[in-house]
Amino acid sequence: MHVKPCNYSNLTKILLSLCSKSKSFLQTKQTHAFAILHGLLPTDISISASLILRYSAFSSPSTCHLLFQQALPYSRTPFLWNTFIRALSIARVKHDGFQFHVYNTMLRTGIKPDVHTFPFLLKACADVFCFKKGVEIHGSVIKTGFGADVSVGNTLLLFYGNCGGLRETRKVFDEMRERDVVSWNTVLGVFSVNGFYLEALNFFSLMNFSSGMKPNMVTFVTLLPVCGRIGDKRLVAQIHGSVVKVGFNFEVSIGNALVDAYGKCWNSDDSKRVFDEMVDKNGVSWNAIITSLAYMGLNRDALDMFRLMMDVGLKPDSFTISSMIALLVELEFFNLAKEIHGFSLRFGIEHDVFISNTLIDMYAKSGHPSAASNVFHHMNVRRNVVSWNAMVANFAQNRLELAAIELLREMQAHGEVPDSITLTNVLPACGQVGFLRNGKEIHGRTIRLGSNHDLFVSNALTDMYAKCGYLNLAQNVFNNSVKDEISYNILIVGYSQTSEWTKSVVLFSEMGLIGLKHDVVSFMGVVSACANQAAFKQGKEIHGLAVRKHFHTHLFVANSLLDFYTTCGEIDTARKLFDQIQHKDVASWNTMILGYGMLGELNLAISFFEALKEAGIEYDSVSYIAILSACSHGGLLDEGRKYFEAMKAQKFKPTEMHYACMVDLLGRAGLLEEAEQLIKSLPITPDANIWGALLGACRIFGNVGLGCWAAENLFKLKPQHAGYYTVLSNMFAEAGKWDEANRVKEMMKLRGARKKPGCSWVHIQDQDRNVKMGKEVRGSRVSMDTLIWPYTVSKGSTPWHPSEAGKEQWRAGAHIDQKPVPEFDHFYYQPSLAGLPLGQYLMLKELLSAQF
DNA sequence: GCAGTCCAAG
Question: How long is the CA A162 to C1' B8 vector, in angstroms?
């Protein structure tokens, strides 16, 4: 048998081509060692070049550099230089523009660039959006006379197209001496990726009908996504016709593009038909049909198609896996998504930036922020901007706002440039914690980035300002942007919690007038606006509208209505609505408990709380706030203590709000010392609500000493809050200590604390009357958000009253002239429970009022 | 040359 003499050079080349197919780092390293062992490396430049390219695929620019340096100087031909430049681009050496340094070194060494050098350099510029460098290289192209070369011209087109200079692209195209089909396709692609879809279509007809250039397959593959983007079914069908005419319809890539394009214009029948009729199918075809179905919202069909793909015995690739996980996250099938991830591990395709990104998203959306971080930190592929964005979203959506804001800094330190999606992700975090300064900074950035007119961005900005309590700034962004339903909802909800609540109602009706549809959030916002101000008439009208439009059955809207009727004192109506809600959630129950507590129906409050425990609904810490506040309203000391102990015995950790309730409960029962002890032994720093409760109690019982202590702490926390000064001053006055009383008033003036005039809307016998607050309001419906303390008189249970002296004064109405009504944001007066936990809302309010 | 990941109101 004749054995061919072994040619190690050829063998290495074969091995390298195998490495290219298997994409195995280990094999590449083994081949590298093999080449060194057989003395091929410093001399054989074709092997050096191949290895450099192989390593570039694993983002190892340093190894590429080493291989290049090891190559003997005389063997460094333009070919090797070009390969090195190209490898650096593939390895994505972005930050330092090392390619250009290499190019300059090449020129200095006396090597003349050849016809391949410029395309590689221009491609590098296009990839890293380096406009200045590209223009410079364009200059060298002209100087060296390579401008006439069609492939150089084509990369120039690509460069100018990528870096956004559409005018320049056209100019280069028009000035090209020679054009081939690639030139036409490149411009077509440039139009397509930059969103100039109509221009792309015009350009295609120019090519097809006027230039005499015959479109090739690439032309159609580039054109079809454009048709899909435009969403024109007839256009896709037309292109489909042309494709059939020139006989490209049996090509896999054309079939794939057709499946996708039909899907994008919501033509599921033709999308499926093209897929079924494809003679040749590859993985892309299956991915295309799966993503098309998912795009059209046919999630179940997409899932079935994935199963079919597995049944046929096709191996899913990273495209399949990432889109399947995204699909399952959308369906909230988190367990199934994890299973699919397991699949990908088995197939060894988890090292993909797309898969990692979807995994981050999956864990974030399923409420496992640390698992998401874990994926992020252990990614063994290069993170891209989407990875960072997903992480920012992970933090922002899982109540780790500070981490989200911090990550924005960190990503820049890692050389990643935030895009408009990053900013839309951080903005909610800024709003959530009331970081106005950071929010404004980001606003500035969006303007510099030119993305402030992006609907997502402008909505996020509006929301951020609204959440920070700057409705004027929110309105400003709103006025200067395009608006959709969400923009309106943001402002409706934003105004609903303020004194300008009527703007919510105005925006609500304006929405209808300009043809935008109200949705659940619009109704929720406007009802809660009415609830906050006890605007009974408007609220009832909107309730009527909600019924007509069938929104009243939606849980969130129903909860807002409950809140509305309870704050308006219409507890019986609230009860009727409550009974009609089919699937009540914990907020529905909490609202009722708080409502009954507020109106002094203590037995009902307690029986509702007990019923909630029985109902099999997971009650939360807000439920305890509601029942504790009911107990303190009714002076039910023992019950309150019992519930507080029961709560601690469970998994609930008492928050500031719970302690405030307890201080209030003890204080009103006259157990001021015990309240004092409780505050001193707190495991947390007492907040304004806790001190406020103590101050209120001291005021009732005329305990000036303790009251001073509470007030001092309040002054530290909220120096601008007029209410606290007033209460303290009045306490001194009642104790006959006029000097001290005046001193407190002086202090208040000095610190610039302003009092706000108070007034309350009382509805008596369906008549709206604006009355001065403080009158006996027995049996009427009262909005209590401006009262100093809740003054409720109930039938049926033991009424609780302020101290006799205080009561007398109250009855006489003497305080109306003497005492300004302080704005006192104690939690009783903010009974907005709809949808979200009260505690959180108040914490936010607290943060919002903090000075920056 | 085709396909996939991240974003706003509650």
Answer: 28
Structure tokens at A215: 């479109």
Distance from residue A53's CA to nucleotide B2's C1', rounded to whole Å: 24
Q: How far apart are CA A810 and CA A803, in angstroms?
A: 10
> Distance, angstroms, CA A39 to C1' B10?
69
Identify the residues numbered 682 to 701 in chain A whose C-beta atom is closer than 7 Å to any atom of strand B: none
Nucleic strand B contact set for A 194-233 (CB, < 7 Å): 217-218, 221-222, 225
A385 in contact with nucleic chain B (CB within 7 A): yes
Environment class of residue A779 by beta-carbon count within 10 Å: exposed (0-12), middle (13-18) or buried (19+)?
A: exposed
Q: What are phi and psi of A712, to 5 degrees?
A: -55, -45
pLDDT score at A809: 33
| Positions in chain A short of pLDDT 50 | 1, 757-852
- Angle subtended at Cα A460 by Cα A456 and Cα A461, rounded to the nearest 5 degrees: 120
For A108-167, the three-class secondary structure string (H helix, E strand, C coil) is HCCCCCCCCHHHHHHHHHHHCCCHHHHHHHHHHHHHHCCCCCHHHHHHHHHHHHHCCCHH
User: With a 7 Å cutoff on the CB, does A256 touch strand B?
Assistant: yes
Give distance CA A366 / C1' B4 (Å): 21
Measuring CA to CA, how many Å separate A846 from each of A103, A496, A717? Answer: 59, 17, 10
Closest by CA to A566, choosing from A613, A626, A625, is A626
Distances (CA, A) of A256 to A241, A280, A349, A491: 15, 10, 22, 44
As a rounded value in angstroms, the CA-to-C1' distance for A405 and B8 is: 17
Neighbour-count burial of A245, counting CB atoms closer than 10 A to its CB (0-12 exposed, 13-18 middle, 19+ buried)? exposed
Q: What is the pLDDT of residue A775?
A: 28
Stated pTM of the model: 0.73
pLDDT tens, A88-108?
888 766 556 788 888 888 889
DSSP per-residue letters across A163-221: TT-HHHHHHHHHH-SS--HHHHHHHHHHHHHTT-HHHHHHHHHIIIIIS-PPP-HHHHH
Cα A280 to Cα A290: distance, rounded to the nearest angstrom = 17
- Fill in the DSSP letter of residue A316: P
* Six token digits for residue A183: 């030139």
DSSP H helical ranges for A514-551 = 520-532, 536-548
- CA A503: distance to chain centroid? 26
The answer to whether the beta carbon of residue A390 comes closer than 7 angstroms to any atom of strand B is yes
Checking each nucleotide's C1' against the CA of A294, the nearest proves to be B4
Q: Which nucleotide is nearest to A325 (CA to C1')?
A: B5
* Spacing of A256 CA from B2 C1' in Å: 6
CA distance A363 to A329: 9
Pairing of strands A767-771, A781-782: unpaired
Considering only residues 510-529 of chain A, list those whose CB is below 7 Å from strand B. Answer: 519-522, 524-525
Give, as ranges, the nucleotides of chain B with any atom within 7 Å of a protein CB: 1-10
Nearest-CA residue relative to C1' of B1: A218
Which residue in A167, A173, A238 sits closest to A211, CA to CA?
A173
* Helices and strands in chain A: count of H runs, count of E runs: 47, 3
| pLDDT tens figures, A607-656 | 998 988 888 888 888 888 889 988 888 888 888 899 889 888 887 888 88
- Answer for A484: CB within 7 Å of strand B: yes
Strand B close to A747 by CB, under 7 A: no
What is the per-residue pLDDT for A696? 87
Q: Which nucleotide is nearest to A317 (CA to C1')?
A: B4
With contact defined as beta carbons under 8 Å apart, do A271 and A292 qualify? yes
CA A53, distance to chain mean position in Å, is 39
